[in-house]
Each structure stands twice: as C-alpha cells, then as structure tokens.
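2024-03-11 09:14:02 INFO receiving multi-entity request
2024-03-11 09:14:02 INFO entity count = two
2024-03-11 09:14:03 INFO echoing inputs for audit
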Amino acid sequence: MATKVFMEALSPTMEEGRLVKWNMREGDVVKSGDVLAEVETDKAVMELVARGDGVLRKQLVTEGATAPVGSLVGVIGAAGEDLSALLGGTVAAASATAAGGAPASAPTTPSAPAPAGPIAVPIAAPAAAPASASTSKSSPLARRLARESGVDLAAMAGSGPGGRIIKRDIEAAVAGGGAQSAVSTVHRPPSTVSDFTDQPLTLIRKTIARRLAESIGPIPTFYLTAEFDMTRTAEMRASLLEQGEEYRVSFNDIILKATATALARYPEVNAHWLGDKIRFFNRVHLGMAVATDDGLIVPVIFDADRKGLRELSAESKALAGKARARKLTPEEYTGSTFSVSNLGMMQIDEFTAIINPPECGILAIGALEDKPVVINGALAVRKRLRITMSCDHRVIDGAIGARFLQDLRRMLENPLMLVF
Amino acid sequence: MANYDIIFLGGGPAGYVGAIRASQLGQTVAVIEREGLGGTCVLWGCIPAKALLESSHIANRLKHAAEFGVKVGDITLDYGVAMKRSRDVSIKNSKGVEFLFKKNKVTWIKGTGVLGAGKSVKVTTADGKSETHTATKAVVIGTGSRVRGLPQAGLELNKTTVISSDEALVLEKAPATLAIVGAGAVGCEFADVLNAFGTKVTLIEVMPRILPLEDEDASAEVARAFRKRGIDVLAATRLSGTKVGKDRVTMTVEVSGEKKELVVDMVLVATGRAANVENIGLKEAGVQLDDRGFIKVNEKLETTAKGIYAVGDVAGPPMLAHKGEREGIVVAEIIAGAHHHPINYGNIPNCTYCYPEVASIGFTEAQCKEKKLDYKVGKFPFSANGRARTSGETEGFVKVIRDAKYGEILGAHIVGPHATELIHELLVARQNEFTVEEIDLAIHAHPTLSEAIAEAVLDSMGKMIHA
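2024-03-11 09:21:47 INFO inference complete, emitting structure
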C-alpha cells in the first residue's frame, strides 16, 4: 500500500515550503523516519521525514520548487506497485511552482478530475471564522438572551464552532456595557495556573475594532514617541562594567529588562488580538527583532520578566547568534507576546516598527545620543534615546499606551527600580 | 531505542484514542502499555461489566417471559459462564484496539514505562529488557487509576473475602451472600448482576442515598426497584467492628442509630479509585500533583513539566472513559498544532447501567436550588409511555430541569429502559444551547421511549399531553 508524502507544516506558521534538496532518489529504499528531503520553511531549514516504508517511487516536486502545506510532494510504495490511480487523482492538488516561476516538472495527467484523497496531514484550521453579518449563526438560547438584553447579533462575532454566537458571547457583550473598567485596569490579572486569560470581546471593543479597521487598515495602528533620559542607565551600565567583564550588559539588554518588567504590569499591552477575543498573557515572552542576511526574524525570550539582567543578556546574545546562523528551532521564534526592535546601532534617530500580529504592540528603539537639554533652567548634556511604540488600537487605547511608556520611562530614568 | 513525535504512557481510552488522533495528524506515535490495549475500560471496567449486566438483564426478563406468552422451563444460572463470556468480549475489544493501532501505524511498546530525562521514557519490556525511547514533541501520561480498599473501615483488599470490581469480574461462581460497600455506579451495577445470579446482596452507602451524585429522584427510583428485587439497600449507614475471616466477613452496620450484625461470604469494596501516579518518575520529571493526588494540568492539559501532558483518570475527575477519550483527542490536536475546541467539562453524561438504567447531564435539582437558579421541572413517567408499556419496562422517568425565563436546559435525568442511550438527545441539545422549545418543535416518532423526553419538556412548560 503506497504512502503519500505531503508537504508538512514544519513550523506553526508555515503555509508553504521550498524543497531545498532531495536526500533520497527515486528508487531508493526508505524506512519510516528516514529523512527524505530538506525543506525551507518561512523561518528555517527543516527535515521532511518518511511516514511509511517502501521505495521512494516518485518525486513530484523538483529541488528548488515551492509547494503549499498539505500538497503531495512524493510517493512511497512497493517496487512495481501500480501508482497510476493514485497519481492521477492527486497530482492536481500538488500545485507546485518552481522558485523562478517556471512550472515544476511534476508529472501531470490531463484527465484527472477525481478529487484528491483525504490529506493525512491537514493544515491547522484557522480559528473560528467570524460569522458573516447577513447570516450570523447563533444558538436558540443566545437569540433569546439577546432579544431580552437588546444585544445586536448582527454586530457580533461568535466564539462557538464556526463562529456561532453562543450564550457566553451574549453574557460578555452584556457585561461589557457595565463592567468596561475591567479592560482598563492596570493591575496584573490574578495569577492562575493558566498562562493567559481569554476575554471575549465586549461590544465597545468590537465597535472600536470595526470602526478603526475600516479607517486605517487591518491593524489600526497608532504611534507614541517619547524621548528618554538614559544618563543614569549609562552610569549604571558603566559602574557594572567596572566590576569586571562578566558584568557587561548592552543598553538593549537593559531596555529589554525594563520592557519586560513594564509588560508584566500591563496585560492590555502584553496581549494577542485573536479576532473574536483578546488574549491577555500572564507570562511575558519578549520577541527581539534580529536582522539576518535572509531578513528579519524575531526570536523569543520566554518569561523575560522573571529573568535577571545577566540571564537576559546571555540569552539575547545566544538567540541573536543562532538567528544569524539560521539555527533557530520553531519553538525559539514563536510564542512571543510583545516585541522590541532596535535600530540604534545603525544610527537611526527614531522609527516606527510594524506590529507582528497577533501581538498588539512593538517598541522601536532609536540611537542613544549625547544631546543638550534644559534641566532646571540650565543647559546640560545628557544621554537621550527616542522610543516609539506602535499600538494596535483595537486592544491598546492611547492612554494605556502612554501610561505604559511612562512606566518604562520611570524605570529607564531610574534604573535602580529594575532591582526593586 | 527510537524517536517518536509523541509517546503516550498508558494505552487506556485516553491514551489509545489520543494516539490514533495524533497519528491521523501525521505524528509518529508510540504507546507504552504493559497489559492489554484499552485499559481499565476495556479489560476491567465498562466493557466486561456491561457484558455481565446483559446476562443479569436476560435473567430478570426471563422471570416475566410467561406474561409475554413465552414459557421457558426451569432457569439455571451460571455466573462462571457469564464471566467467561464477558472476558471474551473484553479480549475481542482489546484486539480491536490492536487492529486500530496497526491501521493507524501506532507502535505498541509492551512494557512498563518510567519518565526519564528530557522527553525520554525508560521502558522495561515484558521480557525484562530495558530500553529508552524519546519523544521529540511531547510525552502524554495516561496511566489511569486502580481500585482501592477501605482500610479505614478495616476493609483492606485481600482478593478472597474482601474484593474489588477487578476480582468480581473473574469470579467463577456467584457467592451466596455479598455486601457491597459504596453505592455509586460500580456498586449499583454489581448489586444488579449478583442479585440476578442468586446472591443475597446488601448494598451499603455512607451517604444519605444510593447513587449520591445523581438527582434525588433518580436515587429513590433505583432504591425502590432494587428493594423490589430483594436487594437490601442500606443508605446513611456506618460500618464498624469489621472482622475479616478466611471465608466470611463480619461487620456491624448502623442505620439511623440502630445497630445490627452482618455476616457475609464476601465484601465488594466500590468506594472509588486511586490515580496511578506512583513509580513513573513524576517527581524527578518535575510533574506536580494536586492536593487530591491527581496530576496537576492546565487547560491545555499540560503538566507542570514542559512538554509533558496528562489525560484521563490520572489528570483528575470525572473518572470516565468518555472524558479521557476527549482529552486524548484534544491533547493530540494541541501537540500537533491543529485546531481544537475547548473541552466542555460541564456537559459530560453520567451513566449507570444497572436496571433501571440511570443517565444524567448538568445540574441536579438540589444543585439548582443551592445555586438559587430560577428553574422549572418537567417530569414524565415511563409508566405513561406507550413503547415502555409494550416492552413491560415501565419503571423510571424523564426529568428535565430548565431555566424559568429562557428555557435553557440546566439538567436532565433519566431513569429507565435504555436511559443511557436516550440521554444523548438532551446532551446534544444542551451542548448546542437548544432550549426546551426546540426539543418540543422536533417531532418525535411514535411509539418510542424518546417521546418521554418530549413529554417531560412539555411538562416543564405546563403543556404535557399524556399524563
């Protein structure tokens, strides 16, 4: 019995893969677990492994070609097994295209109307699709509750299967009217076993989201820029260094530490926008943008708020090194709850960074500079730094973002707070 | 020594179902199981017990055969034959799981596993060899639970005069007299079986009523039916002065201040099960337990150790095969990164397969009162249901508890013929938030037992037709 080889989702965000190299030739004997090919995902080069025993009968994608996740890239079967039925029915699904845009040399059968067989490696289905306004699906109980409380079903997205509006959505909408302050509390949610708290969207959140997205694009972003006085941070860094080379930390490390500490206090900022709900995280997983020869990648420092400066510094250095060497595993670059991008070393004064969805914010760190400033009426030279925060307005309101930056400023201007 | 994406420790309903789902999602999967596939459910629980209950059901039905115009000669009962048939059914089911593993390319590693460093598992195989297997993505613990005795009442399991359901399932013959301590689902089911096979059964429960987790009406109905068949039902009963002998057990039972001596051939302890958390390396792996002795998991079924998950009985109550199966499926989807729905722990059916059967979902009436919910009750007896009369099985009722204002189904309780099948109409309705009105609007076939559900629903709205 033949085993189909599919392009597998080798990273959580992978939608297609480029077949870099076949490790097995057609006719080679393969065992389950053998590495058939190397596949470049959106982030790294990974191994595609055989899921059955036999002979690699067909390579349906040429080296260098790209194939979507779930499409057929090869067939393992017994030597001499007739594969014509199998190939006739499924090649249509493997819409492989060569990297240069030329069609791949995959065999095609013109008379192939049969639908592809069930795909053994299904692509992760997207989260519940929002119900379309005209035929918004809802449970009978939800409709009764909505009628009673005057909630407009057409204006909401449900959290049930397939976006169906169910009881908890109505309850959340009703609660949103009176208990809106729950969204803007500045306290960390009560610590539970859970890593995060999902909050279905309140009506006001939903309206804000819809209106703002109509106005500006899928992620209604606004930007807050503030100039920080980093003189004390520079003094702290210098005095640490006086204690020896092992105490060397970069300004970026200190900024990461301060950001993580502030995020732990602002669940609204440390959150994911998930379409039908907002996920507030109880843990801080800080993404740090790293430029590599192949482009941008954002490795993650997990539980950054709980790590000391030394640990944070070592980890950020190690992650940046691995990123440049393309050695990051998918676990190392997924799961961030908020990100920081720093172009200070490139002498960029200030810039705006693009939010990495479903995150809701990102900090853009500019260059540290000696600047004349007025302090108590007198001119002084201070170390100054410009930070711009990009905020997803569906989650972060202006005042919240501003308060977050205020907190960050307090910490970076009084860095002893970081050890408090 | 091999690498797998996921290793399941334990091949019961949670582990084997999870393994198959994971394999469907393209994962390489191994299951470490020392006994047979299917776990307690298939080998020592659900399946063999239900096979025995079928025997007792036939025995009880035959007593009334003459009323149906079917005259049978002398009936002889042989528990040994019933037991052997139930073992055959178990083994066939276990082989069925083996077949499913082959079909789905799940590897069964026969042996006992202990968590090792990283995501490895050290296995001592059936033939005494030692090997280590490593999971690249996750290890899932599904080691289940086991019977336990009641040492605080002097009832340590000894497999001869103080037994558990494990031994009751392989008795060669029914004892002359038996006390069953604990009148939950297991206690009530064995009371039914052994009573039908001629044992004088005393069913003892410390709580105020048998089936203490069910609605009070359900407990009362089963107690009445049991007493009618000659089972001595003792609720709100305390045990003392237990003396365990070689061929008998003596104990003092105290019911409402009155003490009496009870001498029986055997005691079956059915007071609950303990999670299998020992000798699998949990502590060393950093897997913590909760204060009741179950493995602590978050809503992603992840334990306190990264990359180690737990499902089924060992991950906490309710200790039900169908709860474990769902956790197995969901954990496979979580680990494989596939889309999954959260588990609705508030809508898991409870089923007891004695006669009359008992099945329920949601809140009992007492819980509704306690929560100060504004509710209405609808109740319809099977004695007024045409189909139940035709089969002569008129014990029991359907009871539906609904929200007074919106008609939401808060709870449903069925006692009677095929209750464990009938409950699913209400289960699906409640899962999908249908109110009592939608159930009524669906035209129920006549004559069926399900009409009793439609009538109970109507009763909750004050519109019952047939009673």
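2024-03-11 09:21:48 INFO post-check: Residues 89-135, 178-192 of chain A have pLDDT under 50 and may be disordered.
2024-03-11 09:21:48 INFO post-check: Chain A touches chain B through 29 residues (CB under 8 Å).
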